[in-house]
Amino acid sequence: MERDPETETLEELLELMHEHDLDRLKVKRGDAVYEIVRREASAPSVAVTPAAVAAPAAAETETAPAPSSHAKRILAPLTGVFYRSASPDAEAFVDVGDRIEAGDVVCILEAMKLFNEIQSDYSGTVSRIVPENGELVSQGEDLFWIEP
Fold first, then answer.
1. pLDDT digit string (tens) for 114-135?
2. Could you give the C-alpha distances from 72 to 31, 63, 93, 123, in angstroms and in order?
3. How many other β-carbons are positioned within 10 Å of the β-carbon of residue 87?
4. I want to staple 33 with a disulfide (CB 3.0 to 4.6 A). Which of 26, 54, 59, 69 is the partner?
5. Could you tell me the residue range of the domain that residue 135 belongs to?
6. Are residues 106 and 84 located together in one domain of the fold?
7. Domain ends where: 28, 43, 62?
8. pTM given for the model
9. Total domain count, the chain
10. Contact 16, 25 (CB under 8 A)
11. pLDDT digits (tens, 9 = 90+) for 39-87
C-alpha cells in the first residue's frame, strides 16, 4: 500500500519537531502551510492551511523588508534546520557585515540527521541573515542577502 505524500510530510515534520524538542513548528510547502504546536509532551496539534487562506503567513512576509535590487540572495537548497555554526559552542560561520568570498561556508542545514554545509555562490558583504538559528527552513527560502 502506497503512503500518502501529505502523511509522509507530516511524519517528517513531527520527527524534526521531536528530534529538536520544538514546541512549535511552521513550514510552507507548495500551497500548504503546516503548523504544528505541542500542547503537551505526547500530543502535538497539526493544522494544514492552503497558502491562499493563510493570512498570518502572508502578513508576516509583507512586513519583512525586501532585499535591495542589487543584493544577491542565498537560498536554501533543501528543507532542513538552519544552523549558523558547526556546533552550539562554535563561532558562527558568518555575521551581518562580514565580507565573504564565493565558496565560503555560510551555514549548515540539517535534514534527516545529515548536516549539509551551504556555500555562498557570491562574493560580497552579508547584509542580512534571514532565519533564526535552529529554525526550520523550506527549500527555496532566503537564507542570506549578500551585497556586492
1. 899 999 999 999 999 999 999 9
2. 26, 20, 18, 9
3. 8
4. 54
5. 65-147
6. yes
7. 62
8. 0.58
9. 2
10. yes
11. 544 444 444 545 444 444 444 444 556 767 789 999 999 999 999 999 8
